[in-house]
Design brief:
By secondary structure, the chain is mostly helical. The chain is built from 10 helices and no strands. α5 runs antiparallel to α6 (121-137), α7 runs antiparallel to α8 (163-178) and α8 (163-178) runs antiparallel to α9. The chain is elongated and about 70 Å long. Residues 1-14 have low confidence and may be disordered.
Amino acid sequence: MYNERFSRVDLLPQTTPALRIASNFERLEQQLSSDHLDIVLTINELGCIARHLGHHEEVESLHRRALAVLVELFDETDLHIIWTKSALGRSILKQGRPSEALRFQQQVLHVRIQRLGKDHPHTLWTMSDIVRCFRDLGRLDCAITMQHEIVDRITRVLGPTNPDTLWAMNSLGLLFEAAGDHAMAVNFQETAYKGQMEVLGEKHPHCVWTGDVLQKLRRKEREKLGN
């Protein structure tokens, strides 16, 4: 059975989808073998629920269980395996193990580029996961280089004013700030904010968040000039 943390006392009262999935899982366990694909995919769904609840150790446990079965059923380039490795890498990063997470995400990126292409959204999401690993490892040069590539690809595919493009610019600005390049940080945040104001409006959460970041950057700039 799945971990007791996902009992009716803990998980099920919090979300109706969780109740449906866990109920289906119980029925599936009675009818199917433990290595049946439907069982494995339901375990992954439980992992997604656990992630939203912040139970990252449980997420890792569930996705590892699913992965152990999937590698017996499919080739290592199968997209079920790749999705599971990606989710596993995120859960590991959340637990403060960026080196291990990076290894998983690099495997995922290699396959997604081969199977889906460099500009596919899933490929770009994986690149963003790798950026976060680099950031947490303190490898900011690598993070900035890859985030630049993400911005360039999204701009080419979706256009410069797409909300996803603007959010990627925002992320790049944060990386420059972390690296101590204040001017570049302000430049990308200003570009993102202007686009978000025009496309999303001043009350949109993305616009509010970027505006707050930009104000903090400008305040730091004024304080620096004052000293």
